[in-house]
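Reviewer 2 asked us to include a model.

Predict the structure of this chain.
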Amino acid sequence: MLSQARQFPFVVWVVILGTFLTRFTFFMVWPFLAVILHQKFGLNEAQVGLILGAGALSGTTLGLWIGNLSDQFGRQKVILTGCVLNILAFLTMAVADQVSMYVLGVILVGVSRSLLELPGKALISDVIDNIPIREMAFHLRYYLLNLGAAVGPAAGLAFGLTGQQETFFLTAVGYGIYTVGLIGAFVLMKRVGSHSQPQGDNSLATTLKLLAQDTAFQLLVVANILVMLCYSQVDAPLIQYLDGLAGEKTVSLYTWLIMTNSITILLLQFPMLKLVGRYHLDTRINIGVLLFGLAFVGFALIPNANPVLWIAGMVVLSVGEVILFPTLNLKIDRLAPAHLKGSYFGAASLFGFGWALGPIVGGALLHFFNGLALWLTMATFTLISFALVKKSTHAKRPDFENLESTSQATG
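Predicted model (structure tokens):
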């Protein structure tokens, strides 16, 4: 792993470490936004959820367009725009005295996250030609993202940054540091003249036409949406279900489960990569999906609030996550033609709709049926996802080579 990491270009290190820094400062303050909105403006849970959901969906809805912009106008311009918007978003929330200003800030965060992450992934693919080294860069980026998300809230609590509006300045500073690092890396790239962005017909109209023909990619996206719908059950639906089992011990049990998830990911990501790395990407994806299904069946069968059984089930789910989520990024990278990396990562970000719909579907199943229906439905969805991934391996794909050669001949 270390020998591969030493071969990362400087700009890749900036992207990876910048991702960690911004995720760390982000999670120092973001989990407490709900506290601020409740205490300062008296908003209820539904109103807070609507605001946060609008922010998440704003980035997801614009993902394809943003990814295509990075294909047409370059990764650097789009990434730096995302940094500037993030700084403005968190500065806005740091001084906001109206709900509307928080709504604006939250939506800007959702959009700017797509502006940063989608072309950031495509940039890694652009500048690293060696596939094993590129895959290690994706894995390390995912690992540090999770590390930042795990230690950020703990740092926020340790430093007393719970519900203080001014703490949004810290996140703005984090994005400011990232911006300076990116500018330096981009200047260095121009000086050495390395890795110009692949050229081709990357207009939005052409991209949409290709995506409409790429059945394999479509199946993978649908499978990913279902997987994210299932995975989102570990948020509100899980704690609602546990509340009926554990009563006053619900918060304690749920906290242990979230800690189990974080610890499992941080401890097992690279050992699991070594274990399953010899398998084909599709096989890895299917292993992860099946582990999700196994975990949901386990949740359905646990008869009470036994913490040992719930932690064991969460370990199974987390191992599936460790295998599945990084591999999905690698699969998208393999499917995308060189001149449309941003567009493909953007289209793949539609999985966000699964995350947004998850609490709605899970809440409805709990309300109208019961926990058994919830977890068995999720297990069924994972089987459907498994079937879609299997089908995608033999599905139709566009002839990218002929398309690029035709585009160059007529250009």
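DSSP finds 19 helices and no strands in the chain. Residues 405-411 have pLDDT under 50 and may be disordered. We have added this to the supplementary material.
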